[in-house]
Amino acid sequence: MGAIHCCKGPLSRVAALTILALTATGATAADPPFVGVSLSVANPTIPAGGVLQMQVFVTEPNPILKGKQRASFSSARAAAFSPFAAPAAILGNIRDAALYSPGGDVSGVAVGKTGSTQVYFSSPLTLFGTSIDTPVMTIALPVSKTATAGQTVDLTLDPTNSLWFDPNSQLYPVELKSGVMTVGGTLSISDVSPGAGTVQPGTLISIRGTGFDPNAKVDINEAAIATSTYVSSTLMQVTLSVPLNIRGKRTRVTNDNNERAEYYPYQRTSAIGTSTHALIASSIPLFAETTWTLGYFRPTVQGTIFSGLAMQNLNSKKANVTLKVYSKKGVLLGTQSQILGVNKTQARDLTELFPGVTITTGMKVKVTSDRPIQMMGLLGDDAASTLLPIDPSPTP
Fold first, then answer.
1. Residue 60: how many other CB atoms lie within 10 Å
2. What do you get for the CA distance between the two ends of the chain, in Å?
3. Contacts of 44 by beta carbon, 8 Å cutoff, 6+ apart
4. Domains, the chain
């Protein structure tokens, strides 16, 4: 994934892709299918106090190796009967985000939490983008309780910050269709828990949100629902009759008046503290579904380029993690023990993890855990404000 630095390309190439993305929107049913990556954003209606899950779909399956996409929420419009409000008054900071791949191989980093975010992604099995039943990415933001019905926020996919590479590391042409969120209605979904892993029959699945009515119906794609219980206007609970890997399965709640809300689950976690490195602190690690008890990383440090490490524990018990850093010659320079709590995430610069050790290119970092956890290296560049995902290696 580190090779993406060489793929920013001349502006003329990006401009050509941008022109193609804009002109393609005028296609008709008689036109041939778009040959490339075509992305589309839904146009949801979300009530004040609810949660917007911006859902980005591919309209035709294509294998994706790596790339980047910027999404922004920086412009707003108001209905003629509504007072104008700036987007910041309608949407809060980005709560979290997710990437979805049928093989669970995609990892990434969402850089930026206010107004816009640049998502970098890597899919070594190139399974990312091969399903049209699940979004390739979602971004969740809270809607202000003081937002007024009729206000809108543009959900923009930026064509000048959109690069999608095929399995041969060649750029796809890109077609982008942005969306609009409208404040309105009463119904939204903010979380599905558990949001990842295989849910066994009889296990309670909690669906949280706003505006559920006592006759609300729950539908989960590919699931056989055994029981459905209305708990309150903010909580529905269901059980299944057969096992289901729930991550990314469309979850829909429909009220008695046919108002509908949809959400694509992922396991939400909370961060352990905050990195002192501003770029890491302003970013969200997006982990592949693969878990590790042993992983190796090779830092790169040069000028404004630095290396970091992110870890996540989705187990039902805490994980005891040991970090070791070795010199180029294999000499042990530092050891740190970490406790990674249940549903906890940690992202740090390597210099934070190994105080007193000067991290240099060519060193080796070894991560071991008594429970399988998600791991991801971070390759950052402060000058370019980029933070790329790096998969662990199972061997030194």
1. 13
2. 18
3. 52, 53, 55, 179, 181, 182
4. 2-183 (2.60.40.680), 188-263 (2.60.40.10), 291-390 (2.60.290.11)
Q: Which residue has the higher pLDDT, 19 or 373?
A: 373
Q: How many CB atoms lie within 10 A of CB 46?
A: 26
Task: Give, in order, the Cα–Cα distances in Å from 119 to each of 72, 115, 210, 383.
Answer: 11, 13, 28, 17
pLDDT of residue 358: 97
Q: How far apart are CA 182 and CA 170, in angstroms?
A: 37
List for the chain the helix, strand, coil content (%; round to 5): 10, 45, 45
Q: How many CA atoms lie within 13 A of 80 on its CB side?
A: 0
Q: Given pLDDT bands bounded at 50, 70 and 90, which one contains residue 201?
A: very high
If you average pLDDT over residues 307-311, what whole number do you get? 98
Q: What is the DSSP letter of 379?
A: E
Binned at pLDDT 50, 70 and 90, residue 88 comes out as: very low
Query: Pick from 301, 346, 283: which is nearest to 119 by CA?
Result: 283
d(CA 148, CA 337): 49
Strand 76-77 to 51-58 pairing: unpaired
Residues 6+ apart with CB under 8 A from 11: none
Q: How far apart are CA 129 and CA 136, in angstroms?
A: 6
Residues 6+ apart with CB under 8 A from 348: 275, 277, 280, 308, 309, 310
List beta partners, residue 374: 312
Confidence of residue 74 (pLDDT cuts 50, 70, 90): low
Q: For residue 61, is pLDDT > 90?
A: yes
308 band by pLDDT with thresholds 50, 70 and 90? very high
pLDDT at 328: 96
Kindly indicate the confidence band of residue 3, based on its pLDDT and cuts at 50, 70 and 90: very low
Compute the distance between CA of residue 80 and CA of residue 304 in angstroms, rounded to an integer. Answer: 48
